[in-house]
Amino acid sequence: MDYGPAALSDSNDASYSSGVYSTLTCAEGPSSSYSPDAAAAAEAAAEAQALRKLSDSLESIFELPRAGSGFSFSDATIVAADGREVPVHRCVLAVRSPFFGAKFSGSQSGVRLEFKELTEDFGVGVGVGVGVGFEVGAEALVVVLGYLYSGKVKAFPKGVCDCVDEECLHVACRPALEFLVQVLYASSRFQIPELVALYQRRLLDILDKVAPDDILLVLSAANICGDECHGLQAQCLEYVARSDLDTVTLEKGLPCAIIERIISARLEVGVNIPERINFPDKHVKRIHRALDLDDVDLVRMLLKEGHTTLDDAHALHYAVAYCDAKTLTELLDLGIADVNCRNARGFTVLHVAAMRKEPNVIVSLLMKGAQPFDLSPDGRKALELCKRCTKAADYMESTEEGKPSPNDKLCVEILEQAEQREPLLGEASFSLAVAGDDRRMELLYLENRVALARLLFPMEAKVAMAIAQVDGTREVPLSSRNCKDLAGSLRMHMDLDEAPFQEQHLKRSIALSRTGN
């Protein structure tokens, strides 16, 4: 079948003529008198039918290249922030969008555009500084570009707007909100006012269901989009002003001018916000600056002044939210902070880590005694908070053998294992208590099971071993690269027959059992 431009044109002409004839015949009949109203209605119906046909045809030339059919007139490529490529047609985009009209003017066939480059100097992103916009994934980019081709607003892609929490309605969870914001941002950047208005309306409809921290994401996007999203910005400002978000959180996510407006609004309306939230202590600020510099020694010196403590400064919360894992580990090693301390808003350090979704950070806290069952102010455990922030598509993403799982999935699994830790410990203790002389064989089996996991799934095994506090395996050198070699090398480096099954061996078996599970 010929899908060339001429074929598409002929098809539309034929459909148009057929539509006019059939509509006129039905409206007037073969022998009826001419009616201007009936003719106008027939013409409008024929035009609507022709537009639908045109929309479907343009939609097909946008979708077929991405489906790998080999049929394509595409002469340009737009690369989403996640690295995936979307084939496009310069003539279509240039006609439909003034932005692309200017961008493709004088360009050659085969041009490749990075979305990051398209959004330079467009505004301020969330916590990333001036001149940088939001990262827009391929799914959101396809929705916006698809609208330029067909004029149709697509349904939300499954898995992209859903979180992992099965009890969530996926209306205002983090994945759904991020998708809406990405589409809004791309629509504004590509100068598509009708799409901006539509997604602004959708965000306004769910704003009362959005968590305060996530409203900052919407507010930042509305601020970037400017006058087009004035209504959304005003509504977000009102919600944030009435929330318990502290100044430190605001400073990390918003421009200074917006923060000043929020503080002024709080003072004007007399919102009951504690003084320390709006105006943090100067000594606390110094500790936070030292953490920004990853200088734990400076933190130790500031603490010697005696003006405050790590818990009063909520230093662990700050380090978990904004610093790297190494800085947090050094701070924890000081041994003078309560790992289960709650901040002014009622969140524990582990709650903040669960929302950040960094595996090493979560493991560090769990190893220092963070409680996974503590509830947040809205009644959720760390695992539930992490699930609400995790996109279903990322969680379900399959990985090849030997490659690490996505960080989001790993965080959920770490917290799940942490909740099951005590039952597993009891089961392992009971199993080893009745094992008798088979204890040595069980330890040998567990050592090699963990070693095999380290060969096939190095990242997951590393995290699991850190949780269980296992420093390594003793049965097979990790230089072994072949699973068959591993099976033939089940030999302990330590001789378990030289002494009775001592307490340290029992503890190691329990730790290895927890790691393997």
Automatic annotation (TrEMBL):
Superkingdom, taxonomy of origin: Eukaryota
Entry's transmembrane regions: none
Residues in ANK repeats: 345-371
Main location: cytoplasm
Entry GO MF terms: zinc ion binding
Gene Ontology terms: cellular component: cytoplasm; nuclear body
Gene3D superfamilies associated with the record: Ankyrin repeat-containing domain, Potassium Channel Kv1.1, Chain A
Domain BTB: 74-157
Keyword annotations from UniProtKB, A to Z: ANK repeat, Cytoplasm, Metal-binding, Nucleus, Plant defense, Repeat, Ubl conjugation pathway, Zinc, Zinc-finger
Pathway: Protein modification; protein ubiquitination
Subcellular location: Cytoplasm; Nucleus, Nuclear body
Pfam families on file: Ank_2, BTB, DUF3420, NPR1_like_C
Residue ranges annotated for the C2HC NPR-type domain, each copy included: 160-174
Protein family membership: Belongs to the plant 'ANKYRIN-BTB/POZ' family. 'NPR1-like' subfamily.
The name this protein goes by in its record: Uncharacterized protein
